[in-house]
Amino acid sequence: MSHQPPYLDQLSLRIPEGAGVPLTSDLRFTARGLGGLVLFAVLAFLGSLQQSWWWMGAGLFGWTGLFLVWLQFRIDLENNLHPRHLQLRWRFADQPYRAGHEATLSIDLTPSMAPLFLRRVTFRHSVYLQSFFPPQTPKRWALAAQKTHRIAIQLRSPILGDFPLYGVEILLTDRFRLFEHQRYLRLPATLRVMPQLPMANLQRKGNQTRPLRAVANGIPQRRPGSGAELHDIREYRPGDSRRSIVWKHSLRLRKMLCRDFESETPMTVHLLLDIGQSMREGTLGQRKIDHATSVAIAFSKTALAQQDRIGLITFDGEILDHLRPERGKKQLHRALKHLQSLHSLTDPRFSDLTLPEMFSLTAGFLYREGFLASPSGRAPCAARPMLHYLWEIIRNHPDLEFPESWKTDEELVMKVLRSVSGYIGLELPYRYHQWATQKAAGLATALEEAVRSMHGGQMIVVLSDLGDVLHWDRVMQSLRLARQHRHHVIFLSPFSPWFAIPQPERDPTIAILQELLTLEQWTWRRRLQRMIGRLGFPVLSVDPKEAPLLLGERLQRLRQSGRI
Question: What's the pTM?
Answer without folding.
Answer: 0.78
